[in-house]
Amino acid sequence: IAGHVHGSSVTHSLALPAMLVDGLGLAAVPLLTGWLGQSYDSAGERRLLEVLAELPGDEAMQAILDRIDDRYAQPAFLRAAARFPRRAMRLLAASHGKAVDALLRVHVATHRDLVPEVLPALGEAAAERIGRIASAPSVAVAPAEALPEVLVSPPWTRPRTVRKPVVVSGLTCQDEPSVTWGPGERDAWLAAPPDHWGRVYGRTWKDIADGRGRYDWSDVVALFIAGPEELAAPLLSTWRLGGHWHWGTADWLPGVAARFELAALPLLLDTARHTPSGAGPSLLPFAAPEIAVLMADWLARLKSVRATALAWLSRHPDAAARALVPAALGKPGAARRQAERALTALVTGGHRDAVARAAAGYGPAAEAAIGDLLAADPLDALPAKMPSLPEWADVAVLSPIRLRGDAGALPAEAVRHVTTMLAISRPGEPYPGLDAVRQACDARSLADFGWALFQRWQAAGHPAKESWIMDAQALVGDDETVRRLAPLIRAWPGENGHARAVAGLELLAGIGSEVALMHLHGIAEKVKFGGLKKRARQKMDEVAAELGLTPQELADRLVPSFGLSADGSLTLDYGRRRFVVGFDEQLKPYVTDAAGKRLKNLPKPGVNDDPELAPAAHRRFAGLKKDVRAVAADTIRRLERAMVDRRRWSAADFERLLVGHPLLWHIVRRLVWGRYDSSGRLVGALRVAEDRTFADAADDPLTLPGDAVVGVAHPLELGEEVAAWAEVFADYEILQPFPQLGRETYTADEALLAEICGAKIPTHAVLGLERRGWRRGDPQDAGWQGWIERDVPGGGTVSVGLDPGVAIGWIDMNETQTLVGVNVDGLDPITASEILRDLREITR
User: What's the pTM value of the predicted model, to 2 decimals?
Assistant: First the structure.
């Protein structure tokens, strides 16, 4: 049989494995195990494992156990273990691996009565493993009276009460469209479109506006972005992309929205209907009844833009409620259900008053009907069809969920109810019963349960049907979840998981803690996948707009305090021993003992240390190192960028966000800061002393005026004072986080330009400029990128040609590059020096 059918489609039919077992019995096991991993589809592989799980021999169960990390293997093994618990305990005890260890712990805890019977058949090591597990204290199961009612008798286990819809006819919303910009948002959108969107070749703006001859849709886009307003504006009311390719709308549409505002709304709406994920975010500043209806539709139907819909509802709650009340009281159907769901989302988001005001504005009947809608028990808001939980999400192999105060763990049925709540929740719209679960259960335990569920989903191959498990991390996860998830998000695009990575960004924003937003910002600033980086930046812009901040101001506020004391240190208490954590010029944490001696590493807890305090302190330091590592490089790079781009802070923000921050002040005090007048001219310089006071280059105390404007001083601004400051820093043995006082400065002399343009530069060195704010030019024919470019302060872009250029997908096709057309004429001295410094460094 094997010779005839191995490798053929017959091997993978669903019926053949069972037929072989019926005919050959256990003799079929070697044949079946040989076919594992050879199936052409997942159904065939799953069926093979299901058949093996039914067979009673060791060989069949061991075959599954040998593949325990493969997709579908763990569900099959759990079924086999339930049928043959003694065999499962024996084989698990003799096997190794993380998954095996977890399965063994659960199996022994579930079948403690079998341990005495199985132990004599085991070797010494296996018997010792089971003995340790069996002797460990088990978690007591909490009684039903200790549980929230929703976990004892959830609504989906009872007959449902159908609410008769109340229809109020004749309601319409007459609101006029409006636009509201967040701080700095419009300026950012105006600067957003890459240069190529504003370029046309061999055409005049008037030719494009008049539609003369054959033209491409991208020419019209260029007209909207860079053409004369008197020619572009009349087209906005009539021109549509229609069936044209909607590539790149996320790049150019925000610029059109910012330039023409309400005049662009018809184009924005039409484009958003064709490409929600690309054009949807461009609607965020706008409010109109049509937008509200569109957002309600997206919220109900399209997971890819649910976050955008929720962000819009949160940004325009009054306008949204006024527009949606008529539909929510209309005839039963999809439009009504969508409007009801959107109004419920508004209430869940804290905008109940806005919904109530809108309803009252339509009269007593509407007010009463909406009141009834909002008065309905939110726990009864269930999907028409309740989801079935996947086999691999068996609660027996998940982390237990403990109640607060050591009151025991949830029983298995209650854990299944928690899992069901997560399955029927939506991003930004959690099932209301989860509030009671979070109040009753230990937060750390709940987060561990959520992550165990995520790992099961990951092991099953991230099935899209159960993608709610990803969303669930925002509902039960914590900062440790973020630390575990962030590296996966960064790696997924390289594993054909771009969509999953984008969902991960939404998840980080949904968790919303300082650590979560810190990691989101880190991805936005430094990740090797351009699409993911761009989406992360868009998400950061959305978060900033919701908070009324610019992206830079948000970044200042995203550095957590990490529980450090006011002086920027942290004491780790081991009971009999204590250690103090400090930070160097690169924000790398180090440890000193009670005598102030710097240690190479934090000692591990010993037998004489407190059994609770010491392990907790050791874990805290491990988490601190991970978190600070994630934020340190970005913060240092951001401050260096602030020096180059001449970013300024008010005196209040400087003292509160930088000097007063327990972590950031470790690098703030290692820099020279400048005071600037309204024209941007340096009028004085200072440093931050160890006691957080200010001093000048003569080390005399200095008071910072309340109306002062502060920034990181560039050495070209300091001029002759650089030497004096360098002496002060040398006297105090202050090391700087990046080159400031010793920074090389350049002017565009002919010899330097000739050296830069004459060098053969390794391609990877050229691409390394991306870490300094440069980017590759947009791909041309055949994916060729022929230049690099960088934005400069005050607007504008500097471009430098590459010869022979870079091929997307084959970076190493050309080992070296020559820089072409290096020109810094017309740039201010600091910008010119920084560009030449970047280019000079890669030619060395």
Answer: 0.64
